[in-house]
Every structure is written in structure tokens, then in C-alpha cells.
Design goal:
The complex is a heterodimer of chains A (472) and B (487).
Chain A lengths: L8 H4 L7 H13 L10 E2 L5 H4 L5 H11 L11 H13 L16 H14 L10 E4 L2 H12 L8 E7 L5 H8 L2 E6 L10 H12 L3 E8 L11 H14 L2 E5 L16 H7 L2 H4 L4 E6 L13 E6 L3 H10 L7 H11 L9 H27 L4 E2 L9 E2 L3 H10 L3 H13 L1 E2 L1 E2 L12 E2 L6 H21 L2
Parallel strand pairs in A: 1-11, 3-4, 3-5, 5-6, 6-7
Antiparallel strand pairs in A: 2-8, 7-8, 9-10, 12-13
Helix pairs in contact in A: 2-17, 4-5, 4-14, 6-14, 7-8, 15-18, 16-17
Chain B lengths: L8 E5 L2 E5 L2 H14 L10 E2 L14 H11 L11 H12 L16 H14 L10 E4 L3 H13 L7 E8 L4 H9 L2 E6 L10 H11 L3 E9 L12 H13 L3 E5 L16 H8 L3 H4 L2 E6 L13 E6 L3 H10 L6 H11 L9 H5 L2 H17 L4 E2 L8 E2 L2 E2 L3 H8 L4 H13 L1 E2 L1 E2 L12 E4 L4 H24 L3 H6 L1
Parallel strand pairs in B: 3-14, 5-6, 5-7, 7-8, 8-9
Antiparallel strand pairs in B: 1-2, 4-10, 9-10, 11-13, 12-16, 15-16
Helix pairs in contact in B: 1-16, 2-3, 2-12, 4-12, 5-6, 8-9, 14-17, 15-16
Classes of the chains: A alpha/beta (472), B alpha/beta (487).
EC number (chain B): 2.6.1.2
Catalytic activity (chain B): L-alanine + 2-oxoglutarate = pyruvate + L-glutamate
Cofactor (chain B): pyridoxal 5'-phosphate
């Protein structure tokens, strides 16, 4: 009988997740059973899950996928011509013409690898991308895990470390625990809008080397949760830093198509790398990640993502591709990926509707970002940087902090818990993103219909003021 | 970590030299040859039955499940009469369980609660009323070894421990098992299934395996595949299962029961009994203490939806404190569409539902016919011997290779791999060699999937017969390779 003492010590070391979402689920259940609450339903804006918040999916994507699943629809005239043509093409790429077959290779369907490579080449102004460097998996997290497995080794002072931004995506700390890798934080500079500073990287690395072996640096650009978009100078500095310190660059770029409404432009690390000349472009090892969960697709539930592996030793890359060996990635999300990198073109039957839907999302997101930032900056005790992410800093009254200590919770978690119970809105506490000191933050996803966000903001304002009043 | 069966062959193809790494790469290569260079072969296309992938082999998917999935993806499909009433009802019910009413949202990490409920009800029905608790069920993205079993084993296996952790595995066994165990830092301890008795599992072999582990590693778990893969011939009887359970209890082994082919039982005397049910029937104290994890998936069986990646595990008798850690590990939610497929699998159309007639008219009938034909044809060759097929998706006949063939192969290839490569090149059939699954020293086997349309199976058997006769003639009648070349 396995008991606690026989449990693998590494598993015991995985930190506990904050369980606000299960509380949200419980409250939803209570509402369904007729319990009275000061709100009609729970609004969850704690993760980048646009559909959950009420954003509609892209019609073209859904139509193509539906036809792929049920090919009889190829004859259905109510579906636009280009939808049916695309579905036919995609089904042709699947074994046995069915999305139910395993992918041809453990890295994914070859034609789709090719589409993705073409997309990357075009995006990067001609910097070539090799389909063999593209590996699919079920979501960017899983692809990241594969790479981390390769890097992970050692224990104690020889344990592999990964330099990680603070704040970082909230799922990252647990993932690093699971793989047995040490998280080494480098602080992003809040006052400047969450920028990445070179001196901070040096400091973090030096401190890390005292108790682990840092082998990689994780970048999130555009930043999650901050929304900060890195400029050319920063990217070049990071690349030089990684090159001279021999760190593998793990670049998560899943929000690359959500940069608008500012003077910022998304620059891919790969493009910048290749513009820095052969001494960098031929040596720096980099893996960049993208997924269908983020941006305008927002198809988190489909679980699809890919990584592009750059300058990896061929033997190592072989291990990487065979690690996924027995479990080929699911087919449907790969098809969704193909649609993401290859949307309808001008002249196609679906082009107008598609462009309109994208425009609507862009408008919503831009307005949301601006509105939310202005609004929250007007709330005493809150301050928010202007960006595509919503990650305001909170001033919490001493009493909340003490109550939290007494209940064994972090203060921002307690704050979010109370907010959820009193106003029915689920936010993310900054401690999940790595802020585990008195620097309290909360995290909100702006990918929601404007009316929903407005509701959330108003409730947040009234709750925050109440909290501060209560404890005066 | 070593790649099993890595074969390096240099094929010159006009401008490019390709290095073929294993038999699957060879098949892709041949496919390209056939299509591009107009290279002459006696066949038009390669039939790939090396995977348990019915759709690849040409089986059409179940309409009901695909219609429900399409409707979930694109709810506008439900307007009008394109779809039958029961399809719409199911899609609507499932969409309501999704956050924001969309399959594009993240689901709970253990799985959508209503679908877990459906699964637990299915298990309850299947096991004749043995209680099933939803909290013990986790829905996972298919592939047992990728995630499900690995997660369970992660808890049990400490890769830094000395002696290392061991897991008993059957021989033959599907190849992903050994790879995954090695990746975890565990040791695979083989127990041999008894071919002459139709690949039966015998407790004495389990004991032998344990004995062989003494001083080498510390076995903590026993992995069972029932119905078997590749040797689906033996569907374990209730008596056998109970013996195994007693053995596991005595030796304090965690039972990992891979039951993904539970829907594929066609032997006339055979009946699938789940390990959970057998355990419950044994009664206390074993039924409250023996730890069991049992696995099922939508990839196998009659659904064959491998590409959708959805499965589940039910955990029995685990220490609640340990369950908390298992909970933490299953942190990556399963694709929602896969969960929808799972719901259909455990809750198919019933008599009276409009979709029921179409649902019935499916693979079951052709499977029975395939089994009959395979046994007939294979057993007509003295150099083949096939145990009677009772369950699972594969045939795993033994092939008696002539000494000259074995000799010829020894130059870098296993003899059965050599046979399969020739089979592929000359007959366009892609089978898997027994080497990939483990077999008794000096014996050779081939594995192929039998879940195909009946006419495909006829074609397969025809090509196999022709090839086999030629192959045997070549290596029995001709004294040397050079003699063959001059013919």
C-alpha cells in the first residue's frame, strides 16, 4: 500500500496550486442549486480564456474544423466555398482522410509543419524556417515541458536553473517544479512599464550560480501577465547576454498577434537573432513557442501549440522529437494551427466576415486595455501600467495582511477569495505569477466583451473601496 | 535511453540520399517513390496496419460521434434539420457543460464534471453495480504512457532511489512501455506470457519475474494489458484475474490495468471482466486495500478516434494523502473535444434513438469476419502459427523463418524485422516485427491490425500469402543469395 513516505520526493516538492478556480466552480454550483448570492453568475477573468469570458470564436476556424470532423458537410452549400476547400485540403493531409488517425509523425502532420514554417518565414521578412524544426504538441506548456526535460538534471547545487521573469505566466512555477528545475527570478521593472533590464539579468544570474546551475532563460514576449512588448534594443541585449553566458533562450511568444493600439510592434526573437549576424545566428540556441490558446484564436480548450527549435544540436533534437514518440499530438488542434497561420486571403469567400471578426476583437481589446488602465489608476490604492495586460499593483490594508497570515493564505489570495465570494468575479493573485512578497498584485485578462469588463471593473472598484473603508 | 530498432539504410533516390531510420520511415519513403518517380511496384499503395489506427486503415468513423463533435464546434449546424434530434440534444447538453458554452475554453483539470459523471455511470453499469466514485476518475489526453500511467508512476518511482524502482511488464508488450519506463528512471521487469496456451498469463511467470528482480531493482508495480496488445488472443478469465490480484496483494504491488481494448472481445467463450470488478468480488480485506489504476481510452476499440486523444484513469484504494499529489500532477487539462468523444463512448446511442441503427451497422460485424479469415489464412501455412484471436485489435502470429533467412538478416537486422522490410518493399504491407514487443529468444512474430474494412483485410491476406510463399521458396529452395540473383 503506497503511503506518503513512499511517494517520490520530487512529486512532494511540487507546489500546491492556488485553488480559486475550484472555489469559483463551487459557487457556480451553488447558484445552480438556487442559493442566493449578490450576483447572478461567476465571471472568471483570471486566465487567458476568452471564450470563458464570453468572446466568440472565429467563425472560419470553427466551420473548417466542423467540416473536418464530419466530412459529409463538404457537400453542405450553406458553408462558404473556401471553408469547404480548406477542409478538403486539410483532410487530405490526415491519414485515412480522418482527424481520428494518429499524425504521420510524432512531430505532427508534415503539410502543417510546412504551413507553419512558411508563416514564420513570412512573418520574419524572409528569414528561413525549416519545417523539420517545427514540433507540435498539445499546447505550449507541453512543448515547453519537453524541452525542460532535456535540460533538467542534477540536485542541490547542480540542479538546473531557469531564469524566469517576475512576474511570469502563472502556470510556469508549477511546471518548473514538475520537471525538477529551479526557478530563478529576474525582476521586471514595474515603474517603466515592466521592462526587462540587463543589469537585473546579470544580478539574477550571479545570485543563481551560487545555488544551482542556470542553463536557460525564459522570456515572455509580449509579456504574460504584463502585456509589455520588448523593443529591439532589449531583445538584442538579451540575445547577447544569452550568448555570452551560454544560456538556452526559451521564448514564449503566444500573444504575438495581440499587439495593437500602441506604438509598439511585435519583433520576433528569431528575426532579431538573424539580423545580428552569423556569430549569433549560428550559435545561439533558441526555442520559440506559439499556441492557438492565445491571441485572436483563443482556442484554449482545443490544446494546440508548436515550438520552433533553432540551432539545436542534431542529436539532441532527435531526442526531442522521439520523446514525444509514442504520443503523437492531437490532430484537430494542428488543423486549427494551420488556420491560424493561414487565414482567409482577400478575395476568399470568408475574408470579409473573418476580417470583421478580427477587427472587432482588436477594437475590444484595445478599448478594454485603455479603459481598464485609466479606470483602475483612478481607484485609490491601485496603480496600473499601460499595456495589453492588466496586472495592477494593490495597496492592501494591514488588517487584511494579518487576517491572511492567520489563515495561512497569502494576502493577495485572500483578497481574491473575498472578491470572488462577495462579487462573483474570479481574478488571479499575483503570487501565482511569482510575486510572493508585500508587492501585491492581481491579474485580470482583458480578453472579454467590453460590457463584461466594465462590470468587473465597477465591482472591483466598489470592493476595493469597501475593503479600505472597513479597515479604517 | 536507446532507440529500439533503429535501422540505418542508405537508399539512393536520384538527387538525394536518405537515411532511413526505421521501418516507418521506410514506408513514407516508399509512398513518396510510388507517387513521384513512377517506380514500378506490384502494388499501387502501401497498406499500413502497423498501428492500432483503424481510420488510417480505412475504417470510417462513427457518424454519431462526429456529428456531435461538429455541432459542438460550430453550433450553428444545429439550426434546421441537418442533424438528427439525438445528436442535437447531446451536443447541446455537452456545450452547456463548457465554460462560456464553447469547446474553446479550458476545462477543469480533472475533466468536465458532467462527463466524469457519465464515465462513472458507465463503469458502474459495466461492473454490475460495483460502486464508482467520480473523484477517483481523471480524464487525460489519451496515450496512457505519455501521461496517465507516467503520472501514476511518477508518484511511485523515485529515479534517484537505490535500488531502482521496478515495474513488471508482460512480454510481448507494446513498445512505448519500455521507452516510457526508461525515461522515468524505472526498470522494466519482464514476465513471459505463455504462447502455447494462447498467450495466457500464469502466476508462476509473475513469480519468476519477481525472482529475477532480486538484487537488481525494487518492483513496486505490475502492469497488465487485458485484452492484450499485441497478443490480444488471451482475454483473461475471472479466475486468472483473481489469481493475479492475490499475487499483487501478497507481494505488495500496485496494479496498473491497461484495459483499453475492453470493447473488443469477440472470442465465443470470452468475456471481459474488469480488474475492478474482480477485485470487488473477492471481497474484504483485499477489496479495500489492493491499489489499482485502470485505464481506458477513446483511441482504441470501436471508436478508434486516436487523433482526438482522450482517455481516463480510475484510481482505486489509494491513500487520500497520496491522491492529493496525483491531483497536482494531472494539471494539464484534456482537449475538450476529446472529452466530448469520451462522453459518446461511454454513453452511445440506445435502441430507440434515431441514430441507433447507423451506430449498430459498424465495425463489429466486419471484425468478426476479419478474425475468421485471418485465422483461416494464417493457419493454412505450416510456417505460420496463430493462437486463436479472442480480443484486442491485432493478430500476432508466429512465423517460423528458415535458417537461411535468419542468416541473411543477421547482418544488422533482426530476422523478423528483415521479414517485415521485405514484406513492405515487395508487397506494400506495413506490419510490425515482433522484436519491437519482446519475444522468447529464437522465436519470431509479426503484428498487424485487424480492425480494417473487410475488403482491405482480403487484400492484405492475399498480398501476405503471395509474398510469404515467395519468401519461403527463396530461402528454402535456393542455396545461396547469388543463385537468387541470377534468376
Amino acid at each position: 500500500m503506497s503511503s506518503m513516505k513512499e511517494v517520490n520526493p520530487m512529486v512532494l516538492g511540487i507546489r500546491d496550486p492556488v485553488s480559486l478556480q475550484s472555489l469559483a466552480a463551487r459557487i457556480t454550483e451553488q447558484i445552480a442549486q438556487g442559493e442566493q448570492k449578490p450576483f447572478q453568475r461567476v465571471i472568471d477573468v483570471s486566465s487567458g480564456d476568452p471564450h470563458r469570458a464570453g468572446m466568440p470564436p472565429l467563425s472560419f476556424a470553427r466551420q473548417v474544423l466542423a467540416v473536418c470532423l464530419y466530412p459529409k458537410l463538404l457537400k453542405e452549400s450553406s458553408f462558404p466555398v473556401d471553408v469547404r476547400q480548406r477542409a478538403e485540403k486539410l483532410l487530405g493531409a490526415c491519414n485515412g482522410g480522418s482527424v481520428g488517425s494518429y499524425s504521420a509523425s510524432s512531430c505532427g502532420i508534415p503539410q502543417i509543419q510546412k504551413s507553419v514554417a512558411e508563416f514564420i518565414t513570412k512573418r520574419d521578412g524572409g528569414v528561413a524556417s525549416d519545417p523539420e524544426d517545427i514540433i507540435f504538441s498539445s499546447g505550449s506548456q507541453r512543448t515547453l515541458k519537453l524541452v525542460l526535460h532535456l535540460l533538467s538534471s542534477g540536485q542541490g547545487p547542480t540542479q538546473t536553473g531557469v531564469l524566469t521573469p517576475l512576474p511570469c505566466p502563472h502556470t510556469l512555477p508549477i511546471l518548473l517544479d514538475e520537471v525538477g528545475v529551479k526557478l530563478v527570478p529576474y525582476r521586471l521593472l514595474e515603474e517603466r512599464g515592466w521592462t526587462l533590464e540587463l543589469e537585473e539579468l546579470h544580478r539574477a544570474l550571479k545570485a543563481a550560480r551560487r545555488h544551482c546551475e542556470p542553463r536557460a532563460i525564459y522570456i515572455s514576449n509580449p509579456g504574460n501577465p504584463t502585456g509589455h512588448v520588448q523593443d529591439l534594443k532589449t531583445i538584442e541585449e538579451v540575445i547577447r547576454f544569452a550568448a555570452s553566458e551560454r544560456l538556452v533562450l526559451l521564448v514564449e511568444e503566444v500573444y504575438q498577434d495581440s499587439v495593437f493600439g500602441q506604438d509598439k510592434k511585435f519583433l520576433s526573437y528569431k528575426k532579431v537573432l538573424f539580423e545580428m549576424g552569423a556569430s549569433y545566428s549560428e550559435r545561439v540556441e533558441m526555442v520559440s513557442f506559439h499556441s492557438i490558446s492565445a491571441g485572436t484564436m483563443g482556442e484554449c480548450g482545443l490544446r494546440g501549440g508548436y515550438m520552433e527549435v533553432i540551432n539545436m544540436d542534431l542529436l539532441v533534437k532527435n531526442f526531442l522529437t522521439s520523446m514525444q514518440g509514442p504520443c503523437s499530438p492531437p490532430v484537430l488542434p494542428q488543423l486549427a494551427l494551420e488556420i491560424m497561420v493561414n487565414p482567409p486571403s482577400p478575395g476568399d469567400a470568408s475574408y470579409e466576415v473573418f476580417t470583421q471578426e478580427i477587427l472587432q476583437k482588436v477594437e475590444t481589446l484595445t478599448q478594454n486595455a485603455q479603459r481598464a488602465c485609466e479606470f483602475l489608476n483612478g481607484v485609490p490604492g491601485m496603480s496600473c501600467q499601460q499595456a495589453m495586460g492588466l496586472y495592477p499593483c494593490l495597496h492592501l490594508p494591514a488588517e487584511i495582511i494579518q487576517e491572511a497570515k492567520r489563515s495561512g493564505l497569502r494576502a493577495d489570495v485572500l483578497y481574491c477569495k473575498k472578491f470572488l465570494e462577495e462579487e462573483g468575479v474570479c481574478l488571479g493573485p499575483g503570487s501565482e505569477n511569482g510575486h510572493d512578497d508585500e508587492n501585491y498584485h492581481i491579474r485580470l485578462c482583458i480578453s472579454a466583451p467590453a460590457a463584461v469588463l466594465e462590470d468587473v471593473l465597477k465591482r472591483l472598484q466598489s470592493f476595493h473601496l469597501r475593503i479600505q473603508d472597513r479597515h479604517h | 535511453y536507446s532507440c529500439k530498432n533503429t535501422i540505418h539504410l542508405q537508399y539512393v533516390n536520384g538527387k538525394k540520399k536518405k537515411t532511413i531510420k526505421n521501418i516507418h520511415c521506410l514506408s513514407v519513403f516508399i509512398f513518396l517513390c510510388l507517387n513521384s518517380q513512377g517506380v514500378r511496384k506490384s502494388y499501387r499503395e502501401v497498406i499500413d496496419v502497423s498501428w492500432g489506427d483503424p481510420h488510417r486503415a480505412g475504417v470510417k468513423p462513427l457518424s454519431f460521434v462526429r456529428q456531435v463533435l461538429a455541432a459542438c464546434l460550430y453550433p450553428q449546424l444545429m439550426d434546421g434539420d441537418k442533424l438528427m434530434v439525438d445528436v442535437k440534444q447531446r451536443a447541446q447538453r455537452l456545450l452547456e457543460t463548457c465554460a462560456g458554452g464553447s469547446v474553446g475554453s479550458y476545462s477543469d483539470t480533472a475533466g468536465i464534471p458532467q462527463i466524469i459523471q457519465s464515465v462513472s455511470e458507465y463503469i458502474l453499469r459495466r461492473d454490475g453495480g460495483v460502486p464508482c466514485h467520480p473523484e477517483n476518475i481523471y480524464i487525460t489526453p489519451g496515450s496512457q504512457w505519455a501521461l496517465t500511467v507516467t503520472n501514476i508512476l511518477k508518484v511511485l518511482v523515485n529515479s534517484e532511489a537505490s535500488p531502482r524502482t521496478g515495474v513488471l511488464i508482460p512480454v510481448p508488450c507494446h513498445s512505448t512501455t519500455i521507452v516510457s519506463l526508461t525515461a522515468l528512471g524505472a526498470v522494466a521487469v519482464p514476465y513471459y506470457l505463455s504462447e502455447e496456451r494462447g498467450w495466457a498469463l500464469e502466476v508462476e511467470m509473475l513469480q519468476q519475474a519477481l525472482d529475477s528482480a532480486k538484487g537488481v531493482c525494487n518492483p513496486v508495480a505490475l502492469y497488465i494489458i487485458n485484452p492484450g496488445n499485441p497478443a490480444g488472443n488471451y482475454v483473461q478469465s475471472r479466475k486468472c484475474i483473481q489469481e493475479v490480484i492475490h499475487f499483487a496483494a501478497e507481494k505488495k504491488l500496485f496494479l496498473l490495468a491497461d484495459e483499453v481494448y475492453q470493447d473488443c472481445v469477440y472470442g465465443k467463450e470470452s468475456e471481459f471482466v474488469s480488474y475492478k470488478r474482480a477485485l470487488a468480488e473477492i471481497g474484504a480485506p483485499l477489496s479495500d486495500t489492493v491499489e489499482l489504476a485502470s485505464f481506458h481510452t477513446a483511441s482504441k476499440g470501436l471508436m478508434g478516434e486516436c487523433g482526438l486523444r482522450a482517455g481516463y484513469v480510475e484510481l482505486v484504494n489509494l491513500d487520500p494523502a497520496v491522491m492529493k499529489y496525483i491531483d497536482n500532477l494531472f494539471s494539464n487539462s484534456c482537449p475538450v473535444l476529446g472529452q466530448v468523444a469520451l462522453d459518446v463512448m461511454v454513453n452511445p446511442p440506445q435502441p430507440g434513438d434515431p441514430s441507433y441503427p447507423l451506430y449498430l451497422k459498424h465495425i463489429r460485424a466486419s471484425l468478426a469476419e476479419n478474425v475468421r479469415r485471418v485465422e483461416e489464412v494464417i493457419n493454412s501455412f505450416p510456417s505460420f502459427s496463430c493462437q486463436s484471436l479472442e480480443g484486442g485489435a491485432f493478430a500476432f502470429p508466429r512465423v517460423f523463418l528458415p535458417p537461411k533467412a535468419i542468416e541473411k538478416a543477421k547482418a544488422g537486422l533482426q530476422p523478423d524485422t528483415f521479414y517485415c522490410m521485405r514484406l513492405l518493399e515487395e508487397a506494400g504491407l506495413l506490419f510490425s516485427p515482433g522484436t519491437e514487443y519482446g519475444q522468447m529468444e529464437g522465436t519470431y512474430h509479426i503484428r498487424f491490425c485487424i480492425m480494417t474494412p473487410t475488403d482491405t483485410m482480403e487484400e492484405i491476406l492475399k498480398r501476405l500469402s503471395t509474398f510469404h510463399k515467395q519468401f519461403m521458396r527463396e530461402f528454402i529452395l535456393f542455396a545461396s543469395a547469388t543463385e537468387r540473383e541470377t534468376k
